[in-house]
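User: Okay, second chain of the day. Same drill as before: sequence in, structure tokens out.
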Amino acid sequence: MADLTTTADDLELGELQRAGTEMTDAPAAPEGHTHGRGGEGGRHLDRTFSRDPQAFAEPNSRQEIWRFAALPRLRALFAAPDADGPLAFSWATGAPVEVVPMTDARVGSVHTPFDRLSAIAMSKATEAVVVSVAGELAEPVIVSAKGAGGVAYGHVVVDVAPHAVGTVVLDHVGNAQYAANVEIKVGDGASVTVVSIQDWDDDTVHACAQTALVGRDAKLRHINISFGGSAVRVTPVVRFAGPGGDVELLGLFFADAGQHIDNRLLVDHDMPHCKSRVNYRGALQGAGARSVWTGDVIIRATGIGTDTYEVNRNLLLTDGARADSVPNLEILTGEVVGAGHASATGRFDDEQLFYLQARGIPADQARRLIVRGFFADVIERIQVPDLVERLLATVDRELEQAMA
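Assistant: Same drill. Structure tokens below.
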């Protein structure tokens, strides 16, 4: 596809260096490896967890977790205003979905806020939407959230029973100043796909923390898709409840002029013999288009036999767009199968466009083919035909707007 300048670091078992590091919230590790920005002796990825908003300092760009965030656009939500905007959740009749009070035992069983905005959202939400997956679902469960302006808070729980199989789609449209939390509990031996779509109007601010707890020998495919919105920030966290867990985190985003899309991930390998794969792809076009991808992975002393790899690739379609890509990897045991990451950001390749045009393909179709090919690694894993069709149509529409 595009001519990308790539930097990669693949760490295999025989190459791990022992640096004598340990983490404050993990069992003491006599030896380890810290890789990525910071060099803080295994503490770079530590976080505070609390439901109390006052447990967190006022966010600023000097704090690692907010370093690349669109703070001016999020500032109004930091003040914890009361909800004043209608946000309507809907789903198909008969779907395994219910609305429960925030005192329900399933709320907070997986997610504890790790930043001020997540804690505010949890304290301000008055009810939660719970999706229960049991047995094998014949069709995806689609939960739509539609905003109509104003401030809104949300909380969603995806509760997957042991050995269940299914797909859950969370679809966000309309406009709002929206802060929310999503928690995903994957029972032992279960296999679930959770898709989060941010397709808001251009004036929306969306900040959502999403935490998954993956059981023994369970599989989770988490797909995060962001198109619309002025500022969209999604912060997935994955933890393991037993050995043998398998997680795939996929992301796709398209930033237009003035948009700021921020994805900050954390995969916490504290159980033995678990696997994680991260693949995020983004395209940017227009003056001031901005994306941030931060991929944090911790392999704790107890995470022996871990197999992990993360990659982020960004395609700059026009001048004036900026993509930041920050992979971080901290390893506190030498007994891993493999651990590594890759990051690439590059401009749209005019030579490829010329090549296709020279073979009789019109410029707009050639551009569409190149971008579709760039996204192919993620799109082919979605496996929801209606969603794939909608996704490709949105990409085409974005490109048409740029060429108009």
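The first strand starts at residue 5 and ends at 12.

User: Thanks, on to the next one.
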